[in-house]
Here is the input.
Amino acid sequence: PRPVYFDCDTGVDDSVALALLLASPEIALVGIGTVSGNVDSTQAARNTLDLLALAARDDVPVAVGAHDHLSHAHDGGVPHIHGHNGVGDVVLPTSPIEPDPRTAVQLLLDLSHAHSGELVVVTVGPLTNLALALRADPTLPERVASVVTMGGAALVPGNITAVAEANIYNDAEAAAEVAEASWPLTLVPLDVTLEHRLDEDDRAALLASGLPLARAIGDILDLYFDFYVGLYGTRSCALHDPLAAAIAIGLVTPTVAPAVPLVVDAGHGPGRGQTIADLRAPRTGYIDHPGVTTRIVLDTDRALAPVLIERLTT
Ligand code: BDR
Ligand code: CA
Here is the structure.
């Protein structure tokens, strides 16, 4: 199995992504780092440890990452979407396991040496930890096989500003540094994550499962489904973070994922946090981009929801 480091701001859809990674024999989850976003990085670690305990996976180290972003403090999160505690205000049984004593940056660097050339980095929160790891050791990309990042909006509107997606906007400076680094980066933006959803039938299947983690995920999704009524018109949700996990696992394959230059706007104007992908190239073929290592996922080969529910419930 491919070794995976998971960087998250757990988070409702982060929880679903974590459960999918745990249920997937194609990969080995070798470490988790947390970052502030949906909640602060300490609460995200608590949620992650509690979810791991429900799956009896206390062997996975969870390291608390950056509390604040590169240029500004964490803003407190989004309680109306992910709940005050990040897991939809569901009270999970508290795991007796404490976070790893290392920072998320140190854990990532250690894992990059232990699994040099093989480590797959999956990020589903702001990119603060990755940027700090790059600053601490600019040779990191040489030891990372690939980075799969949920973030951005290539051709569709943003979800936190008119043009910006939350993970990128929350630390635009970090995202710009990660996009500039020379590693194979697969960006999984809103363009494609909004096309993959869970509905009430899926949630019922989770709640009916014999597995404690699946049932907890069913509970956690309740509040999140309320938020999406405004977007989709029904109680349901997008599968943002789970889609990045599924692509890293190989469960879902991108069918349209052009390798094009990606620039993240880290300025302070109305474009802050925008992911500017030069999508002229694959359409016209008249612009050549040698050496580009960033792929922007725009479509996939199958629907994630059925395979996700099967993996989580069996
Ligand atoms: C992203 O923002 C977070 O709130 C979600 O967990 C997801 O990672 C979607 O824009
Ligand atoms: Ca997230």
Observations:
- The longest strand covers residues 27-34.
